[in-house]
Design a protein that fits this description.
The complex is a heterodimer of chains A (120) and B (111).
Chain A lengths: L3 E4 L2 E4 L5 E7 L5 E7 L5 E7 L6 E2 L10 E5 L2 E6 L8 E8 L13 E2 L3 E5 L1
Parallel strand pairs in A: 2-11
Antiparallel strand pairs in A: 1-3, 3-8, 4-5, 4-9, 5-6, 7-8, 9-10, 9-11
Chain B lengths: L8 E5 L4 E6 L7 E8 L6 E6 L4 E2 L4 E4 L5 E6 L8 E9 L12 E6 L1
Parallel strand pairs in B: 1-9
Antiparallel strand pairs in B: 2-7, 3-4, 3-8, 5-6, 6-7, 8-9
Classes of the chains: A mainly beta (120), B mainly beta (111).
């Protein structure tokens, strides 16, 4: 399975600032996704990070608020801009479509450990 | 919106089988059923998936009804470490594509 790391693991930020979250995978993957999990809630997909092009955003999420980069097949960043307390959540990246050690393709998504953001 | 319906919570005695139901009455012919679980403060973990046949792996079994409108995830010998929120998800295809999470079932395994 893919090993995914996220930085930072948690942060406390002031209102109006921005936080950039990094997602690093130990192997090349086809697809990368960003999710948000608000307190006590399920996961909501923010966007699909596309390598070499703009991310594809879900309804209710916009690029100005959640800019995403994906410079290569193993790395992506999510920035949460102009923070407000309502942005306090866990942000998770997930990956799919990479090559396994056995040479096959993954057909399930693997999730990172998440970044816990608190906005004061 | 999620296409699945699950009970919000269930209890199971340690060592017994945990049977988690899921309704997906509007599932299409090309949609797969996936199960994930999320242990507190961790990212979701893949468990199993299937199209129409029953599936088994080292973690669990997936039983899909013949009409594919519902399924059951079976943890054969639940342990305390299986306490988690279990999500049943349907999605098109089995490679690539977004997962739409519902509210899931919070399973509590008790000694």
């Amino acid at each position: 399975s893919a090993v995914i790391s996220q930085k930072p693991s948690r942060d406390i930020c002031q209102r109006g600032t921005s936080l950039t979250i990094q997602c690093q995978v130990d192997s090349q993957v086809t697809m990368m996704f960003w999710y948000r999990q608000q307190p006590g809630q399920s996961l909501t997909l923010i966007a699909t990070a596309n390598q070499g092009s703009e991310a594809t955003y879900e309804s209710g999420f916009v690029i100005d608020k959640f800019p995403i980069s994906r410079p290569n097949l193993t790395f992506s960043t999510l920035t949460v801009s102009n923070l407000s307390p309502e942005d306090s959540s866990i942000y998770l990246c997930s990956v799919e479509g990479g090559g396994s050690n056995s040479g096959g393709l993954y057909n399930e998504q693997f999730f990172g450990p998440g970044t816990r953001l608190t906005v004061l | 919106d999620a296409k699945t319906t699950q009970p919000p919570s269930m209890d199971c005695a340690e060592g017994r089988a945990a049977n988690l139901p899921c309704n997906h009455s509007t599932i299409s012919g090309n949609e797969y059923v996936y199960w994930y679980r999320q242990i507190h403060s961790q990212g979701p973990q893949y468990i199993i998936h299937g199209l129409k046949n029953n599936e088994t792996n080292e973690m669990a079994s997936l039983i899909i009804t013949e009409d594919r409108k519902s399924s059951t995830l079976i943890l054969p010998h639940a342990t305390l470490r299986d306490t988690a929120v279990y999500y049943c998800i349907v999605r098109v295809g089995n490679q690539g594509g977004k997962l739409i999470f519902g509210q899931g079932t919070e399973l509590s395994v008790k000694p």
